[in-house]
Automatic annotation (TrEMBL):
Superkingdom field: Bacteria
Full protein name: YkvA family protein
Compartment annotation: Endomembrane system
GO annotations of cellular component type: endomembrane system
UniProt keyword Transmembrane, yes or no: yes
Domain spans labelled DUF1232: 86-113
Ranges in coiled-coil conformation: none
Primary location class: membrane
Pfam families: DUF1232
This protein's UniProt keywords: Membrane, Transmembrane, Transmembrane helix
Membrane topology of this protein: Multi-pass membrane protein
Length: 176
């Protein structure tokens, strides 16, 4: 069964208000605490019984955590802040619909994650491309090969960051 609904501008405004609350909370927390809290939330949620529309978005939360912790990727601070705000909202058990409410407790998390994932699409795509490129160099064994790998990864990371920023600028320029 497929159920769709349309969010009105007032609905979107409510989500923006909730995200602003998460942003204020993020400023009071250390990045490591945010990541650990998000990990704890992922571990505590009854994911096995969650609807598939929630599980799909929770996979994206796991990807965001990996991206933040990936030292070779080194996500730039502006994008890092966006991801951290997303994790703060996700990890808050008392968000718009408290997570413990059966059946619908994670609905607001799924909607918010979908909205934020659309905004972070270019960041996640760049990270996926970086990971694919890095896998191609996974077999570097001697010093020369490791040096070549490091140089190639740095070049690819820089090119992907440029692409990421260009796409973000296009998105922001298109907003009313």
């Amino acid at each position: 069964m497929r159920i769709t609904f349309e969010l009105e501008p007032t609905d979107i405004a409510r989500f923006h208000e909730a995200l602003a609350r998460a942003e204020r909370l993020a400023h009071t927390m250390d990045e490591c605490d945010i990541v650990e809290t998000a990990k704890d939330a992922l571990n505590a949620l009854p994911i096995g019984g969650a609807p598939s529309y929630v599980r799909v978005r929770l996979t994206a939360v796991q990807r965001m955590i990996l991206m933040l912790e990936d030292e070779e990727w080194g996500l730039p601070s502006a994008e890092r802040g966006e991801v951290l705000r997303t994790l703060v909202y996700f990890a808050d058990p008392e968000d718009m619909i408290p997570d413990h409410v059966e059946v619908i407790g994670l609905l607001d998390d799924a909607i918010m994650l979908e909205l934020l994932l659309r905004r972070l699409k270019h960041v996640l795509q760049a990270y996926d491309d970086f990971c694919a490129f890095r896998r191609a160099y996974a077999q570097a064994t001697d010093a020369a090969a490791r040096h070549e790998r490091g140089t190639a990864l740095a070049r690819k990371r820089d090119a992907l960051r440029v692409r990421m920023r260009r796409r973000l600028e296009k998105i922001e320029a298109a907003r009313p």
